[in-house]
Write a structure and sequence with these properties.
10 helices; 20 strands; SUF_FeS_clus_asmbl_SufBD_sf; alpha/beta; Fe-S_cluster_assembly_SufBD
Amino acid sequence: MAPMANATSTDQVRKFAAEQFADEPNWLRARRNRLVEVYLAAPLPVRQRTPLKSRKLDQIPIATVPGASDLPNDVQNLYQVANLITVNGQTMHIHVPPAWRDQGVILLSMKQAVNVAPQLLEEYLGTVVNDDVDKFQALNGALWQNGIFLYVPARVTLDHPITVAHFGSSNVSNVLPRSLLVLDQEARATIIEQYLSEPGPERSLWAIATEIVLKDGAQLQYGAMQQLAATAESFVRRGAQVGRDAHIYWNLGEFGSSLSIAEHTSLLEAPGGQSDSTTVFFGSGTQHQDYVSVAKHVAPHTTSRMVARGVMKDDSRSVFTGVTEIKKGAVGTDGRQKEKILMLSDTARADAIPSLLIEESDVFAAHAASAGPVDAAAIFYLMSRGLSEAEAIRMVVHGFLATAIDAIPVDVLRQNVWNAVERKIAE
């Protein structure tokens, strides 16, 4: 397949990168330029159950500077609660509590970090997520516009969640957020990233990346809510490098965009590392969702838990693949996963695919997966007790998702997920 150049030629991409990032340090410009070439040369990713060629993604312009915009009225409240807001890749708002600054916490936009924290940025950027892995990750690595940079010093605990909102207006063709989160030894933090957009007359491409580095004993509650408009096509890749006795908690809600391809990986590379992953997704209309969750056990005595619950309605399609990988030498590892998907219509389709890749014998690994239609008898019973069909379906959906959602430990994120579920039920 020809490189993605229908809407943006290869020369335009090279020129755009050279001009847009001309003021950045030499090491970063060299990195971007190398990844521009990777992006231009790479074919579309191959997804076994998600064909991409027919989506004509090459028709979406990518070498463009998004126009200035602001948050629409219905989400203006984010200015009161968010620590960082980006609109079309531009920083619109940033707030760092003075007490955090006094403790040595560095919270910046990624654009600021280029100049304010260049040594930390150079040390960690690209060390967790492999930007060479496919075309759209290379695009993010080459042309990322903004995002959050966080460094929490050793033994510092942030006393409330960090909230980040990435917003795309109706006139934007591409948004490429990049976030880098580093927690030093025994640090504690909670962060929630939200992805929101307005529907536009044309499609928009979102290529999103988040890298997390947890030093020994650190703990991070990471939450993300993807609620992009139906005109968005999104590619998301997240990774966490988990040190000795460190703990990553993934709490992910996937509800928006026409196409959503997302993968998150926990690299458990030191003894005692732990990963807990909860993913909740809900498809409607003609949405196509393809999710992968990976727990890679490299060191001995590491633990992973993976839970996914999804609901599909209308003509939507989903694939959820859970991968527990246990490398040779990772003795005493405990890896478990459970995926369940509920289909509310005869035309919805879903696959739950667990995978265990085990190279060591002295381990425990287990999986359970199911995808099936809503129980007609349960709906009939609830209707016989006086509920309407819509009320009965709502009750069944709530019961199905409650196990996963109610286990999300961050109050505001848990409520946001329930609110998103209610909106999807009502669509």
